[in-house]
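Complex record, two chains
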Amino acid sequence: AQSVTQLGSHVSVSEGALVLLRCNYSSSVPPYLFWYVQYPNQGLQLLLKYTSAATLVKGINGFEAEFKKSETSFHLTKPSAHMSDAAEYFCAVSPGKWGAGNMLTFGGGTRLMVKP
Amino acid sequence: DAGITQSPRHKVTETGTPVTLRCHQTENHRYMYWYRQDPGHGLRLIHYSYGVKDTDKGEVSDGYSVSRSKTEDFLLTLESATSSQTSVYFCAISPTSNEQFFGPGTRLTVL
């Protein structure tokens, strides 16, 4: 069984400030982890993924995330927020090579607001 | 962008009527998925397919059925729509690399 918890359904930052979106997971097998972004009225776009290689993963648009097994976390960060980063962000976990069907379990999402 | 289309993009229907949503891909990916998105719940898996005529249930499959007669098409059917099925429905596809690619979504309103 696997689950994902995203702390904070809404996060507000000022333009230029650090973005930190939190994700904690539980998984009975070594997981694969993903961050997706959703802009209004659009589908989900993959930001980055962790698949058991480097623990620090760099994604698109300047985002990165670090896999910390001891903390069961995969927090998403960006050093300097831009107005265009305003969107909803979803963390997801899959059993990776240990599971069939590439099943993803999503967190509830965090809406990021960026103030000018 | 992955070649995924969903139709219709918007639909309003009445309680008790059947509804079919279509997902079409041009990527020839093996896996296809249907999710629903509701505020505070993220995306929840309804059904998925791992090949033609091979489907299985997800977390919230009650009231939904699916069919996949061709690699490129995955249909989601609500046999008798209820107001609790008002949602945004997303189709996703996946090759064997584990990541999923999402379609643009279908907004369904059941009155």
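Note: The interface with chain B takes residues 4, 6, 9, 32, 34, 36, 41-46, 49, 51, 90, 94, 96, 100-109 of chain A (CB under 8 Å).
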